[in-house]
Amino acid sequence: MAKGKKKKGLQLLSLFLILVLMIVLYVWYSNKSKEDSQTEEETDSISLAKVDSELLESFHFVNEKADMTLTKDGDGNWIVKANPERPINQTYVTNMISAIDEVTASRIVSESPENLADYGLDKPSILVEAKQKDGIGLTIKIGNEAAIGEGYYALVNEDTTVYLIASSYGTSLNYSDQDMTEVEDGPTITAENIRYVLVEKKDGNNFELQYEEGNDKDYTGANGIYPWLIRQPYEEIYTADSTKVSELLPTFTTYDFTACTEYDSQDISQYGLEDPAASVYVKYFETYEQSTEDSDTEDTQASGTDTESSDTADTAESEETTETIKVDKEYKLLIGNQDEDGNYYVKAEGSNSVFLMNASKIDPMLDVQPFDYINKFVNLVNIDSLDSVDITFDDTIYTLRLEREAKTNDDGKEETVVTYFYNDGEVEEELFKDVYQEIISASYDAQLKEAYNGDASPYLTITYKLTGGEGKEITTSYLPYDDSFYLVDTGARDFLADKRDVESIIKTVKEFKVEE
Q1: Nearest residue to 432 (alpha-carbon basis) of 407, 400, 395, 460
Q2: Which residues, other chains included, contact 360 with Cβ-Cβ below 8 Å and sequence gap of 6+?
Q3: pLDDT in tens, 65-84
Q4: How far is residue 3's CA from residue 158's CA, in Å, rounded to a whole number?
Q5: Confidence of residue 195 (pLDDT cuts 50, 70, 90)
Q6: How buried is residue 321: exposed, middle or buried, by Cβ count under 10 Å (0-12/13-18/19+)?
Q7: I want to staple 59 with a disulfide (CB 3.0 to 4.6 A). Which of 70, 151, 232, 436 is the partner?
Q8: Which of 173, 124, 174 has its CA nearest to residue 144?
Q9: Do 115 and 85 fall into the same domain?
Q10: In this structure, are 418 and 505 located in the same domain?
């Protein structure tokens, strides 16, 4: 009985080992079949022609969107034979040359085609002609697509056989004339270095912004805080809010073009650039460090031993320093029509190259709302620049005045003593400054939408008389406008002031108490 069991166990073990062996043989055979299949496929690939990219000297390609002959310049870069100055995208040239490095076909379609038109080869959609320095050439004509993903019909060199080549040839050799132009960019400007911006629009208001330290519109003192001026679009020049301007300037720093529509356009009117819809003009500066060398010569007396040359009697110690060089620059971009995708046709002034620029870059330049950048204080006059201020309402003039006297203090130093007056009565400095602070807090709260043609008398007039003995005065009137605003008249009438704020000034001045 035990003997039978042992025999049966050996039979099962034998069967198991046979099964394992069969599995191993099956896996090996399956893999071998795949390898054989791949080898067969590789063997089926037909090599038609080869080129040596290092020896290529000319490359001509034609498709629906381009007809271009390229040659190499002295530096080995590919250039357009008919226009050597035109910048060419070298990467795209390299891609095309790599595509024809070795031309292969997956199969023969017809060795003796009766009609090339059946394959789109009577008028090829793509033609490539490459020539090497040693005279070897290559010609590829690509016709119709056989089936999606299957490949294209092609003729190679003088062979009249129609081959099926990979789909990659159809895409790698199909760059447009526009694609082939290397896209240059306008300058990249540091926002802090911008000193002037002018946006001109054929339809709409211009916007002009200028940096001018110490301008005569900034009344905030010797170290003025409003160096930026808004020169357009208002009747008058106004100071700009410096913080707001710093947020705006990055809008005018980059000029990234998405494509070159035409490198040397002879008819820019087709892009709306002969009479542009708008233009952006920027003045700025760039800085760079320049090395300089300062030499100090010391005369030394040779002694003790002989020297190799008498020239060693003079030795020079050189110290290298650097200085910052500032270069003024400017850039003007003309803006024309928009294409079907909303991109703008643009060109730099003085250039015939037409580019496309994304609307997301252009629109913020054109859509600047000047009122957002106005310094909202109507007259922020530094008290140190003030002689007096007259506040007139209800035919009554209220005057705040300062008298300054130079005196020598107990330490023997000269100082200026200021006395404060209200309607010729002396007042405390703190009280005077509180009232003055209320007067200069008047602000622009809204922009006048339409020209004001009324002839109403001023409700309130404030006249600042400044120091310096030149009799300079700044006068602002507030005219009745509607239930919410007074019209601000500074010589120009561009803005409105909140009615409540104006009436608060009057209330504060009326309640001014003079020392008894």
Answers
A1: 400
A2: none
A3: 999 999 999 889 999 998 89
A4: 83
A5: very high
A6: exposed
A7: 70
A8: 124
A9: yes
A10: yes
**What's the structural domain count of the chain?**
3
Whether 309 is in a domain gets the answer no
Q: Are residues 242 and 365 in the same domain?
A: yes
Q: SS3 of 16, please?
A: helix
pTM over 0.85: no
Q: Each residue of 214-257: pLDDT tens digit? A: 898 999 987 889 999 999 999 899 999 999 999 999 999 999 99
Q: Is 142 exposed, middle or buried (0-12, 13-18, 19+ CB in 10 A)?
A: buried
Residues sharing a CB contact under 8 Å with residue 453, sequence separation 6 or more, in sequence order: none
Among the listed residues 443, 454, 448, the one whose alpha carbon sits nearest the alpha carbon of residue 498: 443
Full residue range of the structural domain in which residue 124 is found? 47-180
Q: Are the C-beta atoms of 496 and 488 separated by less than 8 Å?
A: yes
3-state secondary structure of 147: strand
| Residue with the two structure tokens 């919410």 | 484
CA distance 277 to 280: 11
Q: How far apart are CA 439 and CA 508, in angstroms?
A: 8
Percentage above 90 pLDDT, the chain: 68
